[in-house]
Amino acid sequence: MTNNLEKFSLNKYSISDVSKLCNISTKALRYYDKIGLIKPKRFNSNNYRYYTDDSLFLIPIIKYYKQMGFTLDEMNQLISCSDYNIDNIMQEVFKRKMSDLFEEQKGLEIRYNSVNDWYNLILEAKSVQENQNTDVSIQFFSGDDYLYLKQSFDENIRASVINIEFTDYVEKMKANIVGPVILQFKSHQARVTGEAKETCILQKTATPCPSEKTIFIGAQPMARCYHIGSHSTINKTYEKIATWAKLNNYSLADECYERYVIDYWTTKDSDKYVTEIMIPAKRVVTH
After folding, report:
1. Which member of 9, 32, 113, 245 lies 3.0 to 4.6 Å from 37 by CB, making a disulfide possible if both were Cys?
2. Ranges for the HTH merR-type domain (predicted)?
3. pTM for the complete prediction?
């Protein structure tokens, strides 16, 4: 007499039966057969394929492996390993997968931070434009490390901001940049008169870079003002800062920074450009 277990193990299913029962396409089942992941039985006489309960119960396991990100090769390795070495193989495959997923997680975090930083710049620019926030103010600049590259400057802001040389430099370092492009000039007076011949491009990185490749911009108070519109009229905003500093007893440092909130990276419409000018400033004490 056949017991229940033996009867259960003798169930036979066609490929369409398995497809309906397990919500899996026949195309996937045929491919799994081709690569040896789920092998149906075959009648010798007509080569008719049928699946058993053993095959059927593999499908939820495969779906769960797929959910965890295992490749078909890894699944095959896990499913086909013999009982005597299953523990070692599973440990090896799972440890390798956890390492891969950890690296993927780091990559996703970098991409998320890059998108989030750009999104915040869009919101910042929108607020500046809607409120016409172009008043000069003293704000504290929190210090930070920046990847930097010194370059010659010929008044071509687009070439400096969408910087091919800097992009190649970043790629060679295998770095990931985030946040706005910042240009540093040695003299804000020379920037206004068109005599600035050198600039330093600064940008934050998602992960630490070698110290010799970075420059630290120290925490300090700065006179800051947004410039809205084309870079061709940015001199007026510099002059506005200089006038404000004089009236309010502030001494401006020589160096200056241009922080590109919205620029060529985001739009071709120069009327939408938003640039923050930052010049280190100290209060002049009068007696």
Report:
1. 32
2. 12-81
3. 0.79
